[in-house]
Every structure is written in structure tokens, then in C-alpha cells.
């Protein structure tokens, strides 16, 4: 139900017959229609084996030309296995933490030997590999895997572009953070940066939007740091409710230890809001012209970057405009065209070998 994936799905389904094999969208197996595609939910029991079998069974009724995995990991393993058995191309899009190992927070596809072996198998067997941002393409190259950069763009029909708006410097600045509350998104660093801003006299308010997976731990840290009157926790919000909060913000703040995107940076950019964040994904590749990047897990650096940009309204608006330009150029239509070009290349090559 990620908006960028729904946008991609709807565009692909306009031109192709699309079946989506969701490994565990729901606990129980089931089928339904969504965005013009036929969804096959595999469920939780023996998921990968049953997913491959389901793809093979569907292929016997209406042959597939190609299998495309969004995410490597288990999704990629299912895709390359099915592709090999059916002798059709497989495309794997690296979209999460498949390539990283962060033992301090117990995260990453390469954390354990099984994950490292799985990723080696998936990335070597795939007919083609893509990733959302230049840093991830570079990480794949370091592993000896050639990949194409294909960002997952914003659906401008659903999330329309908005020019950056100058802020009233006499009023408290508004910051927004959109991410599930978890160790990878590192809200502890975010809150410590806000505490530094408060101590140095920077007047700002922070809206945090995202599902809480830490059982109140982040909220407790906010209270411990004396930030209760400066932070609002909104929980998960659908896009229609999220958009007004984004438009009210002057900066999006990203504190993640790892990102392949993040998608929220593109969404904020389309809404005219620039990003200050850790040097990951799009933030790393856009800095300094279209974003401001700081080292991971450095609260002081994050606070300093926020304060500097809030103090320079001309620079803030200039960065916002460049971010908007880039996000529009690589919107959901661009994503669909890029993937379809890869599909054509792979299927043409497969046909020529037959």
C-alpha cells in the first residue's frame, strides 16, 4: 500500500496484464483486484515456496513474460527462482536494507551469513538489478553487481506540485518527520537534535508522523528531554491527512541510519518543502543543491544544519525549488517508463535467445 508502488502498479496495468504476488500483505491467503492488477496474497505459511508455486500455476494459465521483484531479500529470491524455472527474465529492485549490516541495531539483509548468501544468489541470478538512488547503485557496484538507478517517483495526480512558500521569520519554525518509529529511522538522534536546537534558542515545533513500533519508547525520550511542548506525535496518517502537515512545515527532517530513497523526501519536495537529513539515499545524492546532508547519528550536526537553513530563508527556498524540480522530473510516470524500457530490453533479449 506504499503510494509510489500503487502509482507504479496503476501505470503498468494500463499497458500490460499485471499479477502481483504479495508474500504476506495479509496473514491468510487471498486474491483481489487493485489498481487494475490481480493481487495474489500468499500468506504466512511456507510463504516463499508457495509463492513460487503460485507463480508457476498462474503462468500455466497465462504465460508471463517477466518477473519483477520490488525488494531483494525474500521477494527477490522468489522472483529469480520463478524466473529460472520458467526460463523468463527476472528483474530485482533493491528497495530496503538488503545490502547493509547494522549490528548495533540488529538490522540489515547482510547481518547474518544466511542473508549474505541469499543476496549473493539473488543479485547474481537476476537478469537485471535496479535501485532508487545513486548511493545504493554504488553499493551494488562495490559488490560486483551492475545496477540501473530507477527512483520510485511521486504520483503528481494524487500529490500535486506546490511552489515553496516563504516563511514568516517572526514565527516558530515548523519541522516534520515522516517515518515509522523504529531504530533504523533513528528518532533518538532526531529528538536529541531538537533538544540542541531548544538549548541554543531556536524556536521550532516538530510533527512526527508514523506508526509506533517501539511501544512508546520514542515518546518517553521526548518527555525525558523536556520536549513535550515542542513535539506532536500523530501516529500513522493516510496521505490526505498527511498533506496539510507537510505543507505547514518549513523543513522535512530525516534522521535515518539507512535509506534507499526515502520516498518522503520526494513527496516533501513536490509539496515545496526541502529536506535536512542524514547522508543517505536521495539526500546524499541531492546535497548540497537540493538537500542538506549530515553524518548519520550525529545530533549536533543535524541540529546545526537545521538551524543554519532556518536562518537563511533565501537558501531554504532555493534548495526547495531545486528539490521540487528534480522530484517532478522523476515522478511516477518517469518510474513506469524506466521500468517498461527495462522490460522491453529483457524480453527482447530473451526472445532472441529462443
**Fourth CATH level, the homologous superfamily of the largest domain:** Glycogen Phosphorylase B
Share of residues in strands? 15-25%
Name the structural class.
alpha/beta
* Overall helicity: 40-55%
Characterise the protein shown here:
It is a single chain. By secondary structure, the protein is of the alpha/beta class. It has 2 domains: 3-153 and 332-353, Glycogen Phosphorylase B (Rossmann fold); 173-329, Glycogen Phosphorylase B (Rossmann fold, 3-Layer(aba) Sandwich). Helices cover 45% and strands 16% of the residues. The protein has 13 helices and 13 strands. It has helices spanning 3-15, 47-61, 73-86, 113-125, 134-142, 187-199, 217-224, 239-248, 263-270, 281-286, 299-310, 313-329, 332-353; strands at residues 19-22, 30-34, 37-41, 67-70, 90-94, 128-131, 148-149, 173-178, 204-209, 231-235, 251-254, 275-278, 292-294. The strands form 3 sheets. The chain has a 6-stranded parallel beta sheet with strand order 10-9-8-11-12-13, with helices on both faces. It has a 4-stranded parallel beta sheet with strand order 4-5-6-7, with helices on both faces. It has a 3-stranded mixed beta sheet with strand order 1-3-2. Helix 1 (3-15) crosses helix 13 (332-353) and helix 2 packs parallel to helix 3 (73-86). The longest helix is centred in the last third of the chain and has 22 residues, at 332-353. It is globular.
Amino acid at each position: 500500500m506504499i503510494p509510489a508502488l500503487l502509482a507504479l502498479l496503476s501505470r503498468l496495468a494500463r499497458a500490460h496484464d499485471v499479477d502481483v504476488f504479495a508474500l504476506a500483505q495479509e496473514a491468510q491467503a487471498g486474491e483481489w483486484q487493485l489498481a487494475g492488477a490481480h493481487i495474489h496474497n500468499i500468506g504466512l505459511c511456507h510463504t516463499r515456496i508457495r509463492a513460487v508455486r503460485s507463480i508457476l500455476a498462474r503462468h500455466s494459465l497465462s504465460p508471463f513474460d517477466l518477473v519483477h521483484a520490488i525488494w531483494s531479500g525474500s521477494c527477490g529470491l522468489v522472483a529469480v527462482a520463478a524466473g529460472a524455472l520458467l526460463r523468463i527474465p527476472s528483474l530485482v529492485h533493491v528497495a530496503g536494507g538488503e545490502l547493509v549490516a547494522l549490528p548495533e541495531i540488529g538490522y540489515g539483509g547482510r547481518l547474518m551469513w544466511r542473508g549474505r548468501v541469499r543476496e549473493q544468489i539473488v543479485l547474481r541470478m537476476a537478469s537485471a538489478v535496479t535501485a532508487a538512488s545513486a548511493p545504493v547503485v554504488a553499493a551494488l557496484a562495490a559488490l560486483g553487481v551492475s545496477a540501473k538507478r530507477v527512483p520510485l517517483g511521486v504520483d503528481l495526480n494524487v500529490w500535486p506540485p506546490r511552489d515553496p512558500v516563504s516563511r514568516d521569520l517572526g514565527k516558530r519554525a515548523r519541522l516534520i518527520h515522516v517515518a515509522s518509529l523504529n531504530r533504523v529511522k533513528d528518532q533518538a538522534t532526531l529528538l536529541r537534535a531538537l533538544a540542541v536546537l531548544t538549548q541554543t534558542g531556536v524556536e521550532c515545533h516538530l510533527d512526527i508522523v508514523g506508526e509506533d513500533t517501539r511501544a512508546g519508547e520514542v515518546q518517553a525520550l521526548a518527555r525525558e528531554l523536556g520536549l513535550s511542548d515542542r513535539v506532536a506525535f500523530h501516529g500513522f496518517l493516510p496521505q490526505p491527512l498527511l498533506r496539510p502537515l507537510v505543507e505547514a512545515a518549513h523543513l522535512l527532517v530525516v534522521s535515518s541510519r539507512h535509506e534507499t530513497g526515502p520516498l518522503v523526501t520526494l513527496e516533501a519536495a513536490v509539496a515545496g518543502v526541502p529536506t535536512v537529513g542524514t547522508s543517505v539515499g536521495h539526500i546524499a545524492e541531492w546535497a548540497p543543491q537540493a538537500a542538506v546532508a549530515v553524518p548519520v547519528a550525529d545530533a549536533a550536526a543535524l541540529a546545526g544544519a537545521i538551524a543554519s537553513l532556518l536562518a537563511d530563508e533565501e537558501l531554504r527556498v532555493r534548495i526547495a525549488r531545486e528539490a521540487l524540480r528534480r522530484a517532478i522530473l522523476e515522478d511516477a510516470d518517469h518510474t513506469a517508463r524506466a521500468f517498461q524500457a527495462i522490460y522491453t530490453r529483457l524480453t527482447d533479449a530473451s526472445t532472441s535467445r529462443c
